[in-house]
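Hello again,

I reread your note about wanting to compare the complex against the isolated chains. To keep things tidy I'm splitting this into two emails, and this first one only covers the full assembly. Below are the input lines as submitted, including protein chains and any nucleic acid or small-molecule components. They are followed by the predicted structure of everything together. The single-chain runs will come separately.
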Amino acid sequence: MVIPLILTGFGNVGKAFVRLLAEKHEDCRSRYGLDFDLVAVVRKTGAWMANKEGEFFNLAAPAAEPLESRPGWFPGMSLSEVLVRARRRGALVECTSSNWQTGEPQLEFLHAALNLGWHVAAASKGGLIVDFKNLQAKARSKKLSLKFSGATAAALPTLDVATVSLAGAKILGFEGILTGTTNYILSRLEQGLSFEAALKEAQAKGIAEMDPSMDIDGWDTACKVILIANAAAGTDFTINDVNVEGIRVVTSGALADARASGNSLKLLGRLFEEGGRYRAEVKVMPVPPSHPLFRLTGTSKGIVFRTDTMGTVAVTDGKSDPRGTAAAVLKDVINIFRDR
Amino acid sequence: MVIPLILTGFGNVGKAFVRLLAEKHEDCRSRYGLDFDLVAVVRKTGAWMANKEGEFFNLAAPAAEPLESRPGWFPGMSLSEVLVRARRRGALVECTSSNWQTGEPQLEFLHAALNLGWHVAAASKGGLIVDFKNLQAKARSKKLSLKFSGATAAALPTLDVATVSLAGAKILGFEGILTGTTNYILSRLEQGLSFEAALKEAQAKGIAEMDPSMDIDGWDTACKVILIANAAAGTDFTINDVNVEGIRVVTSGALADARASGNSLKLLGRLFEEGGRYRAEVKVMPVPPSHPLFRLTGTSKGIVFRTDTMGTVAVTDGKSDPRGTAAAVLKDVINIFRDR
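Full-complex prediction:
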């Protein structure tokens, strides 16, 4: 049976997802019995709708013409209109870049999809940060899956490990290097570069954004802490519940102290218990060589969960480019449908 | 709705599972909506059957009387007889210690359970090593789950990560420290102990068995490599397909070489591609400090997967005592039923 997918967003991650779906289409069919068909792509300016099964393969071709000039492009068409026209329900693949303070456009897209009985696999964070509890409650009441591995450190499987691999255990806390950009800059600071030089280099390599404050002031890590904590520990955190410190505070003295004691400075996103309650923070901390995250330099990421019954479980590395994020989204889509 | 569980084996892991189930019973109900009831425990000598719901809580009490002298004990009763008497189907929790060459008693138990429509969560390896393809085919044809996290490195989530977190990716290979005993002895050899002294110490601490050859000759690791490869990479390996080397081969020269180059010797269970085919081996290899497994000393375990789309993903640590294994089994049981 063909399973329809609708993609929102057609930037780097969205395009990588289309290419990956084309590449893995046959594999999904033979390994999992899942025949995915991308039936529509929705952008701000309108929507492309496939005329026939498998037409999305054309979108995956390199140097293809823009979506807007293809047959099947409907200017101004919204996700809701696309959803209403779909003959069968499937999953929304949400790859827009959404605002983490308003949640839009993701927030509207997720509610629209869930309202009409579509599962969700999301790669961006905005709507989930702003309104997770409502989205989760809506998905549960309709027995729909709401997955967002791609939004919580790309191919590093933070969410699966927390919710599947540690099922039944209580999460006592976690600490993670969840933003590649900040870890890259910290690694370069430890190698002697100035903050400005390290940032400039990261921007030149496409690792840091031209407006880098979301990453270097800790907000990207904070958003991921919120998503992982809410999904894994049942908290109800929003951005105001996290004490956030970025990497601008790192002094040469702190770097020298860490070096002298054999430690490495990392920007950690942390969940911990204090006075019987969960607390979350983002903070630069020295990490000793015995720690599972010590080894992670450059854009590498990782997370360490502490549990009551399974001890400590660390998961590290994983590709963090658009293809890695697309692979995380495809993983979610497969896991949504494989057992149904 | 009450979900019946039947336990086979009542050794360290089986007992730990009963205690954990009692401890987590309410939590499973509130977090996952799953109301587990252990309705029977089967041993070689017979079976205990609960008379009423929740009676298993009595088995979890410390210093309880032996199973064989309790009301509800039926000498000579077999698993098949217990399964036939069950009023509703659930999951078999297989915690015997099974022979990895004959597969028994696990092999018989798994087939009996699957034949009668019961899901399986296994903590031992024998039957799975000997007859995985048939067991998997039987489970699939009946839409039953066949899980064995507890058999593949206890609380270290090797199988979940391979099959759930890396869904859709091709496993290009993996390498893991999968046996705590051998890693402990290697750590002590690196600290200057003789092989005999290190082994004796591990035995005194209960880390190594009195007959340690299963572990130190690499067979335990080989069995885990087979299970993980067959489940994650679709191979059809049995024990004859693995080149197995244990840690008795480690010379003082190899230890000195590793130390001089800053590496650490680890017994690795490996899957890799060669000539377009998967190969498996168990081998002592030097691991450099940049490697995710370098840090793992003592009884710590870990595995590194290499994939086509998600890069490298490493998962390390996890409790490896009977309680950790029991937690892995409970995790499987939860994941079997949470989405049904």
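For quick reference: The mean pLDDT of chain B is 96.

B.
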